[in-house]
Amino acid sequence: MKDGLENSFKEALNQFELPYDAQAWESLNKKLSAKKWYQATQIKWSAALVIAIGIAAYFVLPTSTDRSIKETHNKTTTRETNTPTTVTPNQSETSPSSPQRLVDNATNPKGIDPLMSPGFTPPVVVSELIPHSIPLILDQINVQGLPDKAIDYQEPTPSYNGGIAIIDFKNRCQGETLQLEADKRHERMISYAGKELHFSYNESISLKLTEPGKVTLTANTGPYGQFEEVGSLEVYPSPILSITAEHTLNYVDGLPKISCQAESNESLISWYSTYMLSDILGKNTEILAFEKGFAIIEAQVTSINGCKTKEKEMVNIPSDYNLLAVNAFNPQSLDNRNSRFMPFALTIRQTPFKLIVLDPDNGGLIFETTDADNAWDGIDRRDGKLVPSNKAYIWKVVIQHPVAGEKGEYRGTIVRM
Q1: What is the mean pLDDT of the chain?
Q2: What is the residue range of 231's domain?
């Protein structure tokens, strides 16, 4: 029932048609065919504008080739300002300030500059426009006042660094040390004793001059880093010197001495010591060994070139000097050297003195003398009797004129056997 109703509606709609109106279709067709006047005009002007821009760009804007030709032309014209203008027979006269055109009126009657013509192939530059050959470098500098020839450019020679020359090239002596500070800018080479010693950048130099001869210093200070000689010096030979010292004391004149000798090829010899010396010049000297200890003796010799040589020696001093006095005597001895008491050095030195002997119990004066031949025989001056044996008595000597380095007073003990 429902499906039949729907089919009835569909058939009715499919068979429905509107009545045809021919006049209405005619009116609509006229409206669609009509064109507005301003639409056609706009299209025409747009096309004309595009064509005009293309023509103007073609004739007005030069190509890159034309621009380079014009730049060359302008530069040539500027350089030829002061050069006389050559006029061809068919060329009309122009003012000196107007640029000269490369054109013949016979072949180009309209006088159009070919440099501005489209599609123009640049010609070879006429020699009249470039009277001289100008090198390319002149385009980058001011050429006024320069001669008309190519510039021969050379690399400048670098200035010499004076820091390398802070060296005292005075002559030196064998045995000295040559010391040079580090150099951050140069390598250095030392030629010495048949050898070449290379020192790199920033390396200090410490060279022991062990042999006589010439020392040459070179460094890479040349314009292109080549080695050049900076300076040289001479190493003089050191003088020959040797010393000897006896290691036993001698009392030839009553003083404690140690003999020293020097051998050298030079005559000027100087002596130094931690003890007193009998002489400070010459080949021989003596150490005055008044006190126990170690004596250092040194000799120095100087050559004619000013070179010096030193030698040292050390000597042991076994005991203090005490006038060579004994510590016991026997009045009953048959030997006069042992039967009396007198410091032995006083019998040799022949120097003014005073000898006294004291009792250790009460400090009483037992003996006194100023004569080296008047030795003490053991008698107590207070009672005229022989002092008791095996008892130590105090003695004292005062010297009126002691030698340099010597004390003026000596003390000790003496025992009667």
Answers
A1: 77
A2: 165-236
Please say which residue of 317, 347, 374 terminates a domain: 317
Strands (E), 225-364: 228-236, 241-245, 257-264, 269-273, 276-277, 284-288, 293-302, 308-317, 328-329, 353-358
374-394 in b/e form (b: 16+ CB < 10 A) is: ebbebebeeeeeebeeeeebe
The answer as to whether 206 is a domain residue is yes
**Residue pLDDT, tens place only, 241-285:** 999 999 899 998 999 999 999 999 998 899 999 999 999 999 999
Residue 409 pairs in a beta bridge with 398
Residue the block writes with tokens 């061809």: 88
* pLDDT the model gives residue 256: 95
DSSP symbol at 191: E
CATH of residue 278: 2.60.40.10
Nearest partner of 375 among 397, 349, 343, 401, judged by Cα: 343
Contact 197, 190 (CB under 8 A): yes
CB of 164 closer than 8 Å to CB of 186 = yes
Indicate if 292 and 332 belong to the same structural domain.
no
The per-residue DSSP string of 304-333 comes to TTS-EEEEEEEEEE-S---TT--SEE-TT-
Q: Which residues of 255-271 are buried (b: 16+ CB within 10 A; e: fewer)?
A: bbbbbbebebeeeebbb
Question: Which stretches within 217-306 are classed as H helix?
Answer: none
**Phi, psi for residue 241 in degrees, rounded to 5:** -155, 135
What CA–CA distance (Å, rounded) separates 249 from 258?
5
Helix/strand/coil percentages in the chain, nearest 5: 20, 30, 50
Beta-sheet strand order (sheet of 188-192): 172-173, 228-236, 213-219, 188-192, 195-199
Reading the block at residue 404, the tokens are 């340099």
**What pLDDT band is residue 197 in, cutting at 50, 70 and 90?**
very high
Question: Which amino acid makes up residue 82?
Answer: N
| Cα–Cα nearest to 323, from 207, 221, 402, 382 | 402
